[in-house]
Design a protein that fits this description.
280 residues, alpha/beta, five-stranded mixed beta sheet, two-stranded antiparallel ribbon, 13 helices, 50% helix, elongated
């Protein structure tokens, strides 16, 4: 199967975005699950083609099925009274949902480990997208030196690479969703794509007044004006901090770095103070 065939199987135009591919795949799988003839051989062949097309376009490495000798029945499954074929089909059709569940469990464990036995954080930071920071401890120390009122600070990252392996990219997307969904991050540092993706969903605080007080360069930030799902007028929800001396000294690197404060930030004042430091 080539990519042209894969797009046709999913009913998408060539060059469709990964978000469009994911959405169409979810629709087709849901349609299959709701159908009354899932055991029909033609239906099974169709869903296998859909899975193969999805995996190919998303960059996941899935080997083509090959003819092989029949395997001996699994003795453990047999003793448990489990139909081996049905078990294989379940794992095949729901493998990505299983991966998602495992990833979420890992991240949940990470957050619990990070909280238990530590001084509560006064500022929670996340770096998401094509932005790199090899030394989060240096970044943390530099910020805390300038903000001595902080008792503790946390930094988490979800770094995307241009040539990233498909499964790693999938995992980073899951981590990004956790970072935005968990509600623990106060201030985000993102590339423009990530900013627009979540900013349009109303994830960030309106910074119109703040930008005026801090004398932010309007021309430099004019393309960061966004409409949200609830507010149809354009407002500024993020500020370009790519030239920040603090970020450069801390080894935070990116083609363009946008800072935005979460709409329900627990430590809003500290997040705003950090934003001021970045613009000095």
């Amino acid at each position: 199967m080539d990519k042209k065939d894969a797009y046709q199987i999913l009913g998408l135009k060539e060059g469709a975005s990964k978000e469009q591919i994911q959405n169409k795949y979810n629709i087709l799988v849901k349609r299959y699950r709701m159908s009354s003839d899932k055991d029909d051989k033609n239906s099974q062949m169709d869903i296998e083609k859909i899975d193969m097309a999805y995996n190919l376009l998303m960059g996941y490495h899935i080997e083509e099925p090959t003819e092989s000798r029949p395997n001996k029945p699994n003795p453990i499954l047999k003793k448990m009274g489990v139909d081996e074929k049905k078990a294989e089909n379940f794992l095949y059709y729901y493998k990505f949902r299983i991966i998602v569940a495992i990833v979420l469990i890992i991240f949940a464990a990470f957050f619990i480990k990070d909280i238990v036995g530590k001084i509560p954080s006064d500022l929670d930071v996340a770096i998401v997208g094509e932005i790199f920071n090899n030394d989060t401890e240096l970044f943390k120390q530099n910020v805390m030196d300038k903000m001595p009122e902080l008792r503790e600070m946390s930094i988490d990252t979800a770094t995307f690479l241009k040539d990233m392996d498909g499964q790693m990219e999938y995992a980073m997307n899951m981590k990004t969703m956790v970072l935005f969904g968990a509600g623990t991050v106060d201030i985000f540092f993102m590339d423009k794509d990530t900013y627009e993706r979540f900013g349009s969903q109303g994830a960030f605080v309106n910074l119109d007044e703040v930008a005026g007080k801090l004398k932010v360069d309007e021309d430099k930030n004019s393309d960061l004006l966004l409409k949200t799902e609830e507010v149809q007028e354009e407002h500024l929800y993020g500020i370009d901090v790519s030239d920040s001396k603090l970020l450069k000294e801390s080894g935070v690197i990116g083609e363009r770095i946008i800072a935005a404060i979460r709409v329900d930030a627990k430590h809003y004042e500290n997040a705003m103070r950090m934003l001021e430091l970045l613009l000095e």
